[in-house]
Amino acid sequence: MVHGLVIPKRFNTYADVFGALGVALVVEEALRRSQQQVDSQLVDRGSGFGLVFNRAIDVAAIAHLPPGNPNPFPPVQGGKTNVAKLPLDLVSAFDVVAQTERRKVYREYRNQQRLATDRPEEMPEPPDARTQNGVILTAMRHDSNHNNLWLGAWELREHYGLLVAELIRAFSQEPPLSHEAAIAQVVDRLQSAGCAVPPPASAVKVYLPTTVQGVNRAKADTNKVEPQKIDWLSLWLIAAGLFQLGLAERVKVAERGYDWRVVALIPKDIAWQTYQQVWAKLRQVNLPGAGYGVARFDAELILRFCQELLDHHPAKANRGEVAGFRGRRRRGKPLNDFVTGFSGTHFNSKGQVYGVKEVFSLGLPGWIAPVDYAEVVAYQELVNEHLAVVRSLSVEAGEGELLASYRDFIASGSLRAFFGFQVSYADYVVRQLADPKARPPRLFSVEGLNLMSKADDDFLKIVQDPSFLRVAKAINQSTVYAGKVRIAEGQVIELDWLRQYGLAQRLSTQSGSKTEFLSAIADFLARYEAENLRIAEQLQREGRTLRRVWPTKADLDGLVRLVSEHDHGLVANLLIAYGYARWTKAREGDAEDAIAVEEADGDE
Amino acid sequence: MSPRVKAGATMVWLTVGYQPVSLFSLKRSDATSMAGRSNLVPTPYAIKMALLRVLLEREGYGRRDRWEAWLRPQFEWIRGLTVYVLPPERLVVNRNGYTLRYYDQVLDKQDKGRKTLPMQSGFVFREWVFLEGNLQICVGPSDRAEVLAGLFAEINYFGKRGCFFQFLPEAIRYTAEPSFVMGGEAGFMVQPWDDLGPSATFGRINPFSGEKAQVGRDRVIGTGLLPLRLRSTGAKYDVYERY
Q1: pLDDT digits (tens, 9 = 90+) for A459-473
Q2: What is the count of residue pairs from A and B with beta carbons less than 8 Å apart?
Q3: Dihedral of CA A97/A98/A100/A105: which sign?
Q4: Are A45 and B187 inside 8 Å of each other by CB?
Q5: So what's the ipTM on this one?
Q6: Residues with Cβ < 8 Å from A297, sequence gap 6 or more?
Q7: Which pLDDT score, from 0 to 100, does residue A115 have?
Q8: Spatial distance between the Cα atoms of A359 and B18, rounded to a whole number of angstroms
Q9: Which of A527, A546, A566, B86 supports an S-S bond with B136, CB 3.0-4.6 Å?
Q10: Do the Cβ atoms of A20 and A241 come closer than 8 Å?
């Protein structure tokens, strides 16, 4: 009886994740065939991935299973794939050409749906989540490698039960065997039983990106390039994980340049069923845009995944639990408590071939931690808001640095990384507002910033302070809501007060020193007050009053107190974030609110 | 903590410390030169090679008359050492892509009559590790721990040439038991743990000899479990913290 498996990590790339997922897929199918009703949990144990069963599984029953196809994935068939060896009369291959067409039709429908006012007739069937995984295999000419791995397992179909049972035995030993030792044990036992295990196969780069063709010698005696090989079983498991649960996408990197980016979702502590559901939905119907550069693809990937995971968060159930998550204690836990993030490889196009440009990983926001249903909804709105900001930026419009900065923030998992992006974005916001021909910029809402701040007690203490809020509002009214502002339908009105340029940069550069920061703030407030006095006097003559926030000396004193009690850099960054946010709620006839209305309509 | 023992006692473990003074990089043995993912800390193989280099530079010239007779026991002594490595408190892995000119094997095969080495241009992937804190190495058991400490004192880089480390004389410790070991506890980080094989010879690992080195015999690749936890990650970096 086995209660769980541990699949040791070996490569420190996505191959570790795909290998573990391959084992999970094979075991899941064997449990189904042996009619064992078992739920399992994927757990990252640091040195390996654990597959924990909710009840002990009967390995002997699996060992005695009748012959069957051990492959948890189909062979692929592209336009030029040689399928002569494949038993296509017995199994069907994954038709890459047909699936790509289906994907095109679906994406075309989605585009029309977004652009047209009247909806097209009937929604086409969503594409297979694995379509691009098939495409990358054919595009990189790895379809024959994939099919040979499939064929190797197909040849072992008479020993299906033994193969799976030995895999389970090898990965369930206590203490755990190393990955190599476990694989060697399975191969050894299969060979003892008379099975012809396929020989080591070519370690192609899509499976093992660090073994891309290059120099690899036991000693530095030559720079000869030799093909790399690895045992068949490891490669077969990786191939299974990659094809079934990988995300491959062709990302636009230049005017006519497209690279491939392949990612694996790294489980941390999540039900196997939930893992598959969340990931499949994203890959099928909520894919990130791939036509706007790598940074936007990454940022969208993280945000869209957050959308899907929030849909399954245990806090969504007011009472009881959402299937797939353990216990009520999981409420209020951040998203990266369930899934670590993404591990990926960037394949750069070199004409006919692809090279490994980058082996990377991306984290998930640690500050999204809903405790109840209302918060799940609020976080979903927040993620949508961030997604709208990201989707308003484009590399082609020269906003690549902003996107890279946002990607670094959202992938870091840390809230503090937000400010690096926000300082640059504040400048961008003002630049866009000042340009009558530019699209109105998307702004982060104050409600959203408040929700983000909840994750850090220091942040909360600062952003709830009335002095801080009044000064931040003053910054807002002299930058975002000042000068010429656009109202609905492209009309522009000119407000009485002037817009201040470069304020975010000024505050940011002075934030290294407490004295210099306070003097920059005092300077800003003095100018702001002088302008208020001038306008108030003018309005008074017309019998009107000034509707503008007016910080007092008490507010400045309050800010000085905040700066002495907290990190002055943090106060400065939060002031910039709140100063360039969207503060208003819609009210009829208010120009300020018209901005918000147009912004809401300006989404892609 | 093991009691302090005399360096001259039989079979003693030596612990030494280094302060990293530049970025560190050492390609994993399972990676090729095109996608050079780095180890996070030096491997036993790299440490033993550094010891061997210092030994040869210090004494090799004077022993050239009886080279074979002198070298063999020295090599076997270093080869037999067990090495444990304790990473610093924090590590940051920086990922970079470079355009390099490198050997063009295909062109070389096509035109054997060329007088110059054909080169081609392309990009490669490399990682550089910033180590924050001191690196500790525990080696043993050995009855020549003081000699070993003298060799360690002369090492100034591990891994890729130019990855400098400053030896810390005050960190030397002699103990009857290893001052730390590398276990298989949950949450540990894995890296290939290259070591000299028990039957490795100097001739086989010497890049200037024609003898062939073989993985599994002369270079044994085990599994190293480092007490590190991934704290943060992004497209261009990983941050690890020690447990």
Answers
A1: 888 999 999 999 999
A2: 140
A3: positive
A4: yes
A5: 0.88
A6: A249, A251, A261, A288, A289, A290
A7: 65
A8: 29
A9: B86
A10: yes
Query: How far is Cα A26 from Cα A281, in angstroms, rounded to an integer?
Result: 21
Determine the Cα–Cα distance for residues A419 and A48; give it in Å rounded to an integer: 35
Determine how β-strand A484-486 pairs with β-strand A492-494: antiparallel
Residue A325 has what pLDDT?
A: 47
Assess whether pLDDT exceeds 70 at residue B84: yes
- Cβ distance of A45 and B122 shorter than 8 Å: no
- Say if residue A494's pLDDT is above 80: no
Instruction: Pick A317 or A67 by higher pLDDT.
Output: A67
Scan for tokens 């409600």, then name that residue: A447
Cβ <8 Å between B215 and A225: no
Provide the β-strand partners of residue B13. Answer: B175
Q: Decide if B32 and A355 are in contact by the 8 Å CB cutoff.
A: no
The side-by-side arrangement of strands in the sheet containing B165-175 is: B82-86, B135-142, B12-20, B165-175
Query: Chain centroid to CA B165: how far?
Result: 12
Residue A363 pairs with which residues in a beta bridge?
A341
Neighbours of A231 (CB within 10 A): 19
pTM for the predicted model, two decimal places: 0.90
A228 shares contact with chain B (CB less than 8 Å): yes
Residue A40 zone, left/alpha/beta (φ > 0; ψ -120 to 50; rest): beta
Whether B238 and A361 lie within 8 Å, measured CB to CB? yes
Which residues in chain B touch residue A180, judged by CB atoms under 8 angstroms apart? 223
Query: In percent, how much of chain A has pLDDT > 70?
Result: 91
What is residue B6's predicted lDDT score, i.e. its pLDDT?
A: 57
DSSP H/E element including A297: helix A294-311
A441 with A392: CB under 8 angstroms?
yes
pLDDT of residue A541: 83
B86 — phi, psi (to 5°)?
-110, 115
Q: Does position A594 have pLDDT exceeding 50, yes or no?
A: no
Query: Bridge partners of B224?
Result: B191
Please say whether the beta carbons of A458 and A566 come within 8 A: yes
> What are the start-end ranges of the E strands in chain B?
12-20, 35-36, 82-86, 90-103, 119-132, 135-142, 165-175, 189-196, 219-226, 228-233, 237-242
By C-alpha distance, the chain B residue nearest A356 is B35
Q: How confident is the model over B201-224, as a mean pLDDT?
A: 92
**In the prediction, which pLDDT does A489 show?**
61
pLDDT bin (cut points 50, 70, 90) of residue B112 is: confident
User: Which positions in chain B touch A413 (Cβ < 8 Å)?
Assistant: 232-233
pLDDT at B156 over 80: yes
Amino acid identity at A466: P
Structure tokens given for A109: 């429908």
Strand partners, A579: none
Q: Which of A11, A14, A47 to mutate to test the interface with B (most CBs of B within 10 A)?
A: A47
Lookup: tokens for A46: 């640091």
User: A420 — contact with chain B (CB < 8 Å)?
Assistant: no
Distance CA A443, CA A398 (A): 19
- Tell me whether A283 touches chain B (CB under 8 Å): no
- Report chain A's mean pLDDT, rounded to a whole number: 87
Most confident of A184-198, A205-219, B184-198: A184-198
CB contact under 8 Å between A361 and B125, yes or no, is: no
Positive or negative: CA dihedral B188, B223, B192, A51: negative
**Consecutive H or E run containing A472:** helix A466-479
Tokens of A517: 């920061």
Number of H helices, E strands in chain A: 21, 14
Residue B3: pLDDT above 70? no
% pLDDT > 90, chain A: 55
pLDDT at A432 over 90: no
Mean pLDDT of all residues in B45-51: 97
Partner residue opposite A210 with nearest CB, options B28, B123, B205: B28
Question: Cβ neighbours of residue A588 under 8 Å, at least 6 residues apart?
Answer: none
